[in-house]
Design a protein that fits this description.
about 55% helix, about 230 residues, 2 domains, Beta-Lactamase, 10 helices, five-stranded antiparallel beta sheet, alpha+beta, elongated
Length: about 230
């Protein structure tokens, strides 16, 4: 997190986000939930403030301005005093869509959680473009999320494909859900073999033909049993 903030005050947004992605993985691997929640919140806030940081860079903002916005003083105090980090107030996200995408960018599964009329076609097309760019450029840099207007796109690698979850709101619980989803599709042999079969023949997945997968998606992303 300290490396992320130091990168931020030097206007290296990509490095800052990469460090935050790495930090969250480490916190989760060690089961430090409070810290993982805080890191996820910091990452979301950074994405919301991208335009502000770009303006600061253009205007040649002073080091003190950048230091304050990055929250480095609080970060240093927490490290020196070894203070317990307070859990940020995070809410469950609003699911929009989930995709299973090949490494080449083709969608094997495209499932929407909302009325398609409220999710206009040009917005959907923009998401597909963003996903393609994300896979080719951003994911190779160790990043796992991007903001597209009021929506967030979260991407996870599950070779030989990617899982992409689009939602509105905070990322922490969305992150937990997609991890749980990945764990279960790998563990459930029938689901995994059906996905692999669709991948091998390059055929879109019909959820009605894989009721276990449809049920899993409903349980995790709608009824929130994860």
């Amino acid at each position: 997190m300290l490396k992320a903030k130091l990168a931020l005050i030097n206007f290296d947004m990509k490095a800052a986000r990469r460090f935050l992605t790495q930090a969250q993985k480490i916190a989760e691997n060690y089961g430090i939930k409070r810290l993982a929640m805080n890191i996820s919140y910091e990452h979301d806030e950074l994405l919301r403030q991208v335009k502000l940081w770009e303006k600061l860079k253009e205007s040649g903002a002073s080091l003190s301005e950048r230091w304050e916005l990055a929250g480095l003083t609080q970060q240093m105090e927490n490290m020196v005093r070894k203070q317990m980090i307070e859990s940020p107030k995070l809410s469950e996200e609003t699911p929009v869509s989930i995709f299973i995408i090949t490494e080449g960018g083709s969608a094997l599964l495209s499932h929407s959680f909302i009325d398609q009329k409220t999710f206009e076609s040009h917005v959907f097309g923009g998401f597909l473009t963003t996903i393609d760019y994300f896979i080719r450029e951003m994911f190779s840099e160790g990043l796992d999320r991007a903001v597209f207007g009021e929506y967030t796109l979260l991407l996870k690698s599950v070779p030989p494909f990617f899982i992409s979850y689009i939602f509105k709101g905070d990322s922490y619980y969305a992150h937990q859900k997609i991890n749980y989803f990945i764990e279960n599709i790998r563990k459930e042999h029938a689901i995994w073999q059906n996905i692999l079969k669709s991948f091998q023949v390059n055929q879109a997945i019909n959820l009605k033909e894989i009721p276990l997968l449809e049920s899993l998606i409903t349980d995790i992303f709608i009824t929130q049993n994860y």
